[in-house]
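lol forgot to send this yesterday, sorry. struct tokens for the thing we talked abt
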């Protein structure tokens, strides 16, 4: 596998830039830390935002379902809880599959 097709090596330029910033001892420590964060933060956000969005959507869906079904009875609340668990597993699996499909080429 060559370097251009490897997804981990695609971010290598950012790693090189971060290494250059952090190894520059002429700059003050705080300035190096801020510059390093400016390089690293967009990469972390790109990785974490889909997971955060899925978590928030699942939480809101689960909460609203429990509010609505809690007034119906215990059996209905249990059934809604099991349904929400199945949907959450499906959505996390879909997120992982989408990530794998995007990076398999």
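and heres what i got for the seq, position by position
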């Amino acid at each position: 596998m060559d370097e251009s097709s490897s997804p981990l090596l695609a971010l290598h330029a950012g790693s090189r830039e971060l290494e250059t910033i952090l190894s520059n001892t002429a700059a003050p420590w705080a300035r190096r830390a801020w510059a390093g964060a400016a390089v690293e933060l967009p990469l972390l956000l790109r990785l974490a935002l889909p997971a955060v969005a899925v978590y928030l959507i699942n939480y809101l869906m689960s909460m609203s379902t429990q509010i609505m079904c809690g007034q119906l009875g215990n059996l209905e609340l249990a059934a809604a809880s099991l349904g929400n668990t199945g949907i959450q597993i499906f959505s996390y699996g879909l997120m992982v599959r989408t990530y794998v499909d995007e990076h398999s080429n």
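The chain is about 80% helix and 0% strand. anyway ping me if u want another try
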